[in-house]
């Protein structure tokens, strides 16, 4: 994988330097605070959307959305979420466009505003978007993440029933299950890509897969399972915190996820800084400046005509893309 001309070791070293320089640990703590404050409103929003979406997806079958979370989170955190969901279920239902729903969206948008602030720090830019636009983007991100979460939970919970309905043989069922797992992984990648594309106040290029999003999705799953294993085996939070053990465990997990999100954004920025087509630190938009002139044939090319970034591709496909680009440049030069 091409990392902007950097080795993996050098890219990770620079990422660690940037993590310390931009105070990522402290910013992750701020995001965690907003995440905890928005936890119940977000669960209420997810439950409200699920009430409208899941009957169509599940054909009326009853499902428990806490089941997959129990496989990913420690028992204390999963139990706390289950309790909150049960409390939400017992409340009077509200309409999809009610005042309560608007209030839920407003509360949840504060979390993504904190993410935007951290992403701007990573990119080295200041927030210049109007307040209403910033909040609107945060609300859209809230809805998008909620829909992705519902889709992942529903597909995971209903997969055994789907396999039973398809009546496939063992080998075919294994292949279909692998495709399903890959699809869920892609949805997580899209979640990372959306956060890193819409959050910063900078002109970003949409990339379905980047080294940061790919690494982030893998690390998110690994960190969650390892943290769950640690809490179940060695972490005796109940003896120390008592009834607050669930809150402490969930807060710790959210902090790890926040650190991981910002760290992979730093990883992407390090690669972009090393790439001749990337933006400099503090630069909002790409330009055919001195860095672009280092690449043959692009000194005066406008942004739309310059080759798209393909730094996320495996080395074989990256080499093919580079050869084709060089061939087109040579043909154009010969024609002129």
Automatic annotation (TrEMBL):
It is found in: Cell membrane. Keywords: Cell membrane, Membrane, Transmembrane, Transmembrane helix. It is a multi-pass membrane protein. Its main location: membrane. It holds the Pfam family Virul_fac_BrkB. Residues 282-310 are annotated as: Disordered. GO terms for cellular component: plasma membrane. The chain crosses the membrane at residues 28-54, 95-115, 136-159, 171-199, 211-231, 243-265. This is Uncharacterized protein.
């Amino acid at each position: 994988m091409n990392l902007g001309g950097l080795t993996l070791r050098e890219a990770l070293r620079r990422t660690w330097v940037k993590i310390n320089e931009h105070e990522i640990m402290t910013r992750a703590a701020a995001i965690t605070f907003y995440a905890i404050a928005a936890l119940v409103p977000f669960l209420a929003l997810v439950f409200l959307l699920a009430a409208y979406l899941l009957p169509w997806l599940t054909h009326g079958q009853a499902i428990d959305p806490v089941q997959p979370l129990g496989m990913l989170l420690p028992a204390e955190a999963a139990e706390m979420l289950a309790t909150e969901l049960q409390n939400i279920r017992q409340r009077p239902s509200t309409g999809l466009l009610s005042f309560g729903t608007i209030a839920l969206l407003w509360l949840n948008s504060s979390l993504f505003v904190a993410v935007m602030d951290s992403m701007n720090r990573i990119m080295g830019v200041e927030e210049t978007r109007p307040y209403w636009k910033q909040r609107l983007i945060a609300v859209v991100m809230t809805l998008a993440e909620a829909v992705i979460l519902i889709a992942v939970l529903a597909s995971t919970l209903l997969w055994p029933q789907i396999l039973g309905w398809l009546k496939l043989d063992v080998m075919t069922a294994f292949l279909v299950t692998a495709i399903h797992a890959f699809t869920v992984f892609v949805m997580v990648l899209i979640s990372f890509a959306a956060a890193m594309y819409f959050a910063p106040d900078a002109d970003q290029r949409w990339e379905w897969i980047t080294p940061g999003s790919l690494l982030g999705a893998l690390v998110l799953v690994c960190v969650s399972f390892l943290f769950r294993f640690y809490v179940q085996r060695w972490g005796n939070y109940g003896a120390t915190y008592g009834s607050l053990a669930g809150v402490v465990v969930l807060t710790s997990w959210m902090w790890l996820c926040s650190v991981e999100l910002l760290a992979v954004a730093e990883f992407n920025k390090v690669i972009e800084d090393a790439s001749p087509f990337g933006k400099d630190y503090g630069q909002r938009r790409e330009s055919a400046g001195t860095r672009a002139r280092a690449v043959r044939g692009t000194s005066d090319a406008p942004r739309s005509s310059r080759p798209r970034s393909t730094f996320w591709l495996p080395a074989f496909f990256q080499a093919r893309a580079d050869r084709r680009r060089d061939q087109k440049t040579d043909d154009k030069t010969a024609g002129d």
